[in-house]
Amino acid sequence: MNTIYKHLLLAVLVGFLVGAIDALFGRVLIWITAFRTIHYLWLLPFLPLAGLLITWLYHRFNKESLGGMTLIFETRLDKRKDIPLALIPLVMVGTWITHLFGGSAGREGVAVQIGATISHWLGKKCHLPDNSKILLVTGMAAGFAGLFQTPLAATFFAMEVVIAGYLEINALLPALLASYVACFTSRFLGLPKFAVTLPTSLSLHSLSTMGSIVLLGIAFGLTGRLFATMLAKAKSWMKRSIPDPYQRIGLVSIPLAIALMLFFGGRYCGLGTNLITNSFTHQTIYAWDWILKLFFTILTLSIGFQGGEVTPLFSIGASLGALLGQLLGLDPLLCAALGYAAVFGSATNTLFAPIFIGLEVFGGANMIPFALVCILAYVVNGNHSIYTAQSKVIY
User: Fold this and answer.
1) Which residue stretches of the chain are H helix?
2) Which of 22, 145, 181, 237 is deepest in the core (most CB within 10 A)?
3) What is the pTM of this model?
């Protein structure tokens, strides 16, 4: 059978498998988030013990899986040959524990790692040539699409995130197919999709509006850059200052838990979906929401808790956008949507994925503002990324 047909058949299989696992992971995480929101006063005090449990699980069953997204990037760049299957249950359980006890973290890293691990394993079993590239991208796309149900954004995210400035075009068709299959599968199994219909569309016919777009692009780009650089420095500093992983997560999570409890009653725990909801429903957004969510997410991830960064980036961008919209005299909901996409794009050092996020989550009426703001944020970011293993094209 022609290799391309094998890739497409495997893409369908990967889409079904990853979409089903994403649905399980996402629905459990939704329940955990709701439960923790009600009982956070009883759960946050146990955050240090939860951190110790996560660390023990990884060191007991597969320490190599601690590499997380770095393992995926290294495999795609031919720096390693295998991704341990143990990564899948470990990263799922570790993320559930992190969120149950109030850590500020995301979820996309889990989905992408699950998709990449499954697709890489299937590629090896089928002895496909170049499976570490095409099938790995296919699995990453399926993981992202199954969780967020944005198949176009997922496809381009997977194609452009490993090597900044380069698109893995050979993987386009299987990645797109796997993304749609994963999206339909997770939706069929009851995982809801986040989507917002924006009430206004922005006309760019005035200089003042164009000036506001430029300011938004710069602000969102700098925010994503700040998150990426601070996360890398925090992880490095924590490892140097407290080399023992048990001491690092056990000791630092004590003040982390206290701070999360004291700052507005657990407002900055978990994914940050509460801030996203507030941003798009005219509820209270404080001027400091975005920076505190940024700080707590960086601290949570830098000491060893599991999860991802993208959903917190969505919440940081949305809350900052809602604030800037009020200051600039623009629709806060539209600016929140622009920040939702652009801060994610800046921090991940991707260009096309955030533009498609804007299309698939907020509709096509404001595609030109989304494209302009995301392009500006991408340029302002200056090639920084939350993924330290990300490679850059050198011209």
Assistant:
1) 3-43, 47-61, 69-76, 87-100, 108-125, 134-148, 151-160, 172-188, 207-241, 245-262, 273-280, 289-302, 310-328, 332-348, 352-362, 367-381
2) 145
3) 0.94
